[in-house]
């Protein structure tokens, strides 16, 4: 008997620790929230493996299950938002490596999680005010469904609005329309209520056609480069970049292309102040239209710009929408102080007053530089063709270019645009 009591007294502290841990995780860690966040993020990661029938099938199924889980599984929406924020945007802090601020990356990741967690928590608290049912449907869940379709368009912390549920469908058998998303949301409620109509709703969503788009009557060469970000702006490395750029242009001429498109900042310098390079590009523009990214110095102000060289004429289109915290500080206070302390003045770019539109052989194109290619207002402009330039090396390796592509595809389908995207750090592509 004494021996048994001795064993029990030895195990008691261990049992207390185990019980405390179980109590903590039960109270503060909801595995259903984690599962929902994983499902809600899986299409992004699966899309990084490319586009084929099998992947589209898996992504289609996961997207339906993710929406059902988000709306019908009892969970902590703070934790769901926390994990979604991290799974979708953990890469945001990677650019800080190039400002000698690597130590901030885990802080930024944690901040993103907490930020989105608090947003989801606040929305859920508001919706839970309506604690009643209509036709056996919880009003709070119906409101979440409506928010899933429309509300995320207005969710823009620090002007950053890349959290779009339609993106889940961009690489699936479904077309990433609001209508499609609405039908899937409605089918989730029907399935929860055990009503057979959910299958019909999914079938209707499945047959909504993708837009029929035609390419312009131009042979366009999209250049892909893989210049590491830590080398891109080194004075010793810039001559190699310039040499490579002219090789890309001359190869395009030999291959009889009408247009050659180089990525954002392909010339990592103030191109308009370099008369020798400008003249060389102007001369080549008699053989081919050249579109390239470079910096632009105007009235002692810095611009991130697109240069268009055609028939010895030059058009410079300055960026209209800057990257929050990368090219400007989206805060109403301490902008200069934050810029100097954390970014050494690198965020001090100026902007054009509007999006740029230019013509190639009388065909109109919309100009988009990196972040601008994911801005919905740009797609509302009249020209149906967009030429986008990006430097995604800032965030490699990560899912950032995949998420960017899915957002571009979502907007391109919605507004019936063809997008030509030339990239540094990721394979260039056409969305049509």
From TrEMBL:
The keyword Cell inner membrane applies. The chain crosses the membrane at residues 53-71, 78-97, 103-123, 135-155, 167-191, 198-218. SUPFAM superfamilies: Carbon-nitrogen hydrolase. Residues 223-432 form the CN hydrolase domain. InterPro entries: Apolipo_AcylTrfase, C-N_Hydrolase, C-N_Hydrolase_sf, Lnt_campylobact, Lnt_membrane_dom. It is a multi-pass membrane protein. Keywords: Acyltransferase, Cell inner membrane, Cell membrane, Membrane, Transferase, Transmembrane, Transmembrane helix. It holds the Pfam family CN_hydrolase. It is found in: Cell membrane. It comes from the Bacteria. NCBIfam families: lnt, PRK12291.1. Belongs to the CN hydrolase family. Apolipoprotein N-acyltransferase subfamily. This is Apolipoprotein N-acyltransferase. It comes from Caminibacter pacificus.
């Amino acid at each position: 008997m004494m021996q048994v009591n001795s064993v029990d007294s030895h195990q008691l502290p261990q049992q207390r620790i185990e019980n405390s841990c179980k109590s903590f995780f039960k109270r503060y860690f909801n595995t259903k929230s984690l599962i929902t966040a994983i499902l809600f993020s899986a299409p992004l990661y699966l899309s990084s493996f490319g586009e084929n029938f099998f992947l589209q099938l898996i992504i289609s199924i996961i997207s339906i299950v993710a929406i059902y889980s988000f709306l019908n599984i009892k969970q902590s929406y703070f934790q769901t938002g926390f994990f979604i924020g991290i799974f979708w945007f953990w890469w945001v802090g990677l650019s800080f490596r190039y400002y000698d601020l690597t130590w901030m990356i885990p802080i930024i990741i944690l901040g993103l999680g907490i930020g989105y967690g608090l947003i989801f928590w606040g929305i859920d608290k508001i919706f839970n005010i309506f604690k009643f049912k209509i036709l056996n449907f919880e009003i709070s869940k119906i409101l979440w469904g409506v928010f899933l379709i429309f509300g995320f368009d207005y969710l823009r912390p620090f002007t950053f609005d890349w959290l779009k549920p339609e993106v889940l469908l961009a690489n699936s058998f479904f077309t990433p329309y609001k209508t499609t998303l609405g039908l899937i949301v409605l089918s989730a409620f029907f399935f929860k209520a055990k009503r057979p109509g959910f299958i019909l709703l999914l079938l209707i969503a499945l047959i909504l056609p993708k837009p029929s788009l035609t390419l312009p009557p131009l042979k366009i060469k999209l250049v892909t480069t893989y210049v590491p970000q830590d080398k891109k702006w080194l004075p010793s490395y810039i001559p190699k970049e310039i040499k490579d750029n002219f090789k890309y242009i001359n190869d395009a001429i030999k291959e009889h292309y009408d247009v050659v498109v180089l990525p954002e900042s392909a010339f990592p310098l103030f191109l308009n102040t370099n008369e020798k390079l400008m003249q060389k590009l102007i001369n080549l523009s008699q053989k081919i239209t050249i579109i390239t990214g470079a910096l632009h110095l105007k009235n002692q102000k810095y611009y991130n710009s697109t240069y268009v060289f055609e028939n010895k004429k030059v058009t410079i289109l300055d960026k209209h929408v800057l990257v929050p915290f990368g090219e400007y500080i989206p805060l109403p206070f301490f902008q200069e102080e934050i810029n100097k302390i954390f970014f050494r003045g690198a965020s001090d770019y100026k902007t054009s007053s509007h999006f740029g539109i230019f013509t190639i052989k009388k065909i109109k194109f919309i100009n988009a530089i990196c972040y601008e290619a994911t801005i919905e207002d740009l797609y509302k402009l009249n020209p149906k063709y967009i030429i986008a330039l990006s430097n995604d090396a800032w965030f490699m390796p990560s899912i950032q270019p995949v998420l960017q592509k899915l957002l571009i595809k979502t907007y391109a389908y919605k507004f019936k645009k063809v997008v030509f995207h030339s990239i540094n750090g990721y394979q260039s592509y056409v969305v049509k």
